[in-house]
Amino acid sequence: MNFAHTRIHRTLRLLTQGRGSRLVSAGLCVAMLSACTLSPDYHRPEISTPAQFKQAEGWTQANPSDAIARGAWWELYGDKQLDALVEELNRSNQTVAQYEAQYRQAQALVRSSRAALFPSLNLTAGKNRSAQGTGSSSSSLSNNSSGIRNTYNAQLGVSWEIDLWGKLREAMNANEASAEASLADMAAIRLSQQSELVQNYLQLRVIDAQKRLLEATVAAYERSLKMNENQYRAGVAGPDAVAQARTQLKSTQADLIDLAWQRAQYENAIAVLMGKAPADFALAASGDIPALPPVPVSLPSQLLERRPDIASAERKVMAANSNIGVSRAAYFPDLSLSMNGGYSSSSFNNWIELPNRYWSVGPQLALTLFDAGKRSAEVDRTVAVYDQTVAQYRQTVLDGFKEVENYLVQLKVYGDEAVVRQEALEAARESLRLTENQYKAGLIGYLDVVNVQTTALSSERSVLTLLQGRLVASVQLIAALGGGWDARTELAEQ
């Protein structure tokens, strides 16, 4: 700081000597030499990161496919209709549009703070009509018109605040960091909305598969009911078999009806995510369920680069760090340079003439001597804000690790469960086949068939429900990793 004080002393001496040309040169020297900053040196907050994920055993490192567009992670599911829906979301989602508008506001603040580093040029022109009394009431009344005077002024002024202590630069740095955080927030909300749409779409497709299963089951149960009714009329079966067959059929029909409102909810959610009214959107049923993609695992360092919410949290730390410098600069004097020149005349005819010209030039040094601790309180506040953003950044990183670990173990458990569920389904199908043969041979009653059919249908639905959970967990894991498999962040691609 001693160098800064010496520089100010020399500059002020130049500013009080010589003509306007020397004044301008001195001001430029101050601006070029000014490199003092009062904010702390920024370092990324330290946080303990594990060498690998705890649940990563058995998973492999990402190998992105060249056929997949960078950042289009939803293409991993290989569904063209899903791709089109997400692209529509990217164009029309209203939540993303809100964050995009916030980012444009942040960009405007950056441009405004950058403009403060440069001189401002003002042009004014006007007419002033004035009068002054003579001190005597009688003479003032009798000679009122003779005391009126017109004054015409035209002035060109230049003002410039010299950024001696880096206050303006630090304010600009804070706004730039805030704008970058806003951009990351927009990327995070876009990823969240994309994830929500993909989850809704995948769950809707599983419901379509469940609907097909129940429709086929209802058709089979209708045949069974008809068969039992025929047997009852022929005296082969009792009324209990007919009642059981009818109960089984109606229960399954009720389950089929219940799927209608569930599907409608997912369809309406997709419509809103794309910026459409539910009444203007319909999604036809499909016979296919998108395949579960092999989901690779990233290292924690790549997670930090990939997740936009973590990037946003760090940039907020950077902005808070710069704001400390802005608050500290309030302890030091503000130096501004102003130059004005123009013409002033009492007559419009000879207004712009050489004898009527005037000019003024000079520096101004302003320093607050006493403020009852206001500046000190502001410094304490900005330091506390910085500490808060550091804690938020660290918590965001920890939450990111937790989410990835949770979805990893969820997918691992679901994968193990899927093997057992499939084995149970195959056993239930075989049991049903044998039971139906025994019933047709007259070896067992229809109640035994009903029980086995119920078990088989439950196994079929459990497999589909488990597949739904695995698909949703895979989307959640992709979102927790920041989307995509490229090591570069989505933010850098925009």
From TrEMBL:
Membrane protein topology class: Lipid-anchor
Record keywords: Cell outer membrane, Coiled coil, Lipoprotein, Membrane, Palmitate, Transmembrane, Transmembrane beta strand
Pfam family, one: OEP
Predominant location: membrane
Coiled coil regions in record: 82-116
Subcellular location: Cell outer membrane
Superkingdom field: Bacteria
PANTHER family: BLR4455 PROTEIN, OUTER MEMBRANE CATION EFFLUX PROTEIN
Family affiliation: Belongs to the outer membrane factor (OMF) (TC 1.B.17) family.
Protein's recorded name: Efflux transporter outer membrane subunit
Native organism: Pseudomonas maumuensis
